[in-house]
Each structure stands twice: as structure tokens, then as C-alpha cells.
Amino acid sequence: MRVARLLSIILLAFAVIAAAVFLPDRLCFYNAESYTFYCGTSSADCKEVTVTRNASLTKLTLQNVCGEAAVYKNFDLNSFLKKTGAKIIFMEELSDSVNYYCAANLPYKVKINGAIINLHICVRGNTAKTASPIIFGGY
Fold first, then answer.
1. What is the mean pLDDT of residues 40-59?
2. Average pLDDT, whole number, for the chain?
């Protein structure tokens, strides 16, 4: 009985490790300084989980992920837009930053001013926070 239980624990551990290694990344953003996952059903009940490493593995362990965000240093807006295939729908300039609301091939979306938005980019100096569908909780 003990051997069977130990064997099942080892097999389960192997399955979890194999899933983490072989499942696709499925992150919205790559090569960022940090990643935040929004968990909940809306921005009102959203819980934020932020990591600097193992973002893919962290995402696999979360439930009700309703959005993702990433922070970048030395951000190049045009390169990022091209890489993600994003189109700027509208923008807003603030005293310390510029926000871009975009349409891109990303899994999360919200409707703002009648437009479907699924990529929000906030650029402050040479750093940026990107999110899909939008940045929850500010930047």
C-alpha cells in the first residue's frame, strides 16, 4: 500500500512538471521585467498576482484569470505595436504619461466608448506597462 501511494505521488509530480514544461506559454506578453495576472470576474473584484519569474508556471496555477499585464524598461512603442499587430484606437495624454488603447490579437477584451479594446499601453518616460484588456489598479 505504501509503495502504491508513493508511486502515485511520484507520477502526479511528474505530470505537473511535464505540464509546465510541455504546455504552451500562453502568456500575452514576453520578456518583461514583471508580470501581473488579474484574477476574478471583473475589475471590481480583481485580485492581482505579480511575479518576476516563472510567469507561465504561475499562470497555470491560477483560477479565473481575466487579464494580464507586463512592465517593460526601455520600451519602444512602435516595435511593440508591430510585434503584437496592434492598432491604436484612441489615446489620452496625462501630465506624466500617455495611454494607448488598442485592438490586437489578444484573448481578453472590454468595450470602451463603443470600441472593443484588448490592449492598453501606458508609457511613462522610457518605461511602460502593457495589459490585456486594460490596466487594472493603475500604474
1. 88
2. 88
**Residue 35: strand, helix, or coil:** strand
Q: 116 and 103 in contact (C-beta within 8 Å)?
A: yes
Element (H, E) at 15: helix 2-22
The closest of 26, 97, 102 to 68, measured between CA atoms, is 26
Asked if 115 contacts 90 with a C-beta cutoff of 8 angstroms, the reply is: yes
Question: 466608448: which residue's cell?
Answer: 113
Q: Give pLDDT, residue 50.
A: 96
Looking at the chain, the whole-number percentage of residues with pLDDT higher than 90 is 73
Task: In whole angstroms, give the CA distance from residue 14 to residue 116.
Answer: 41
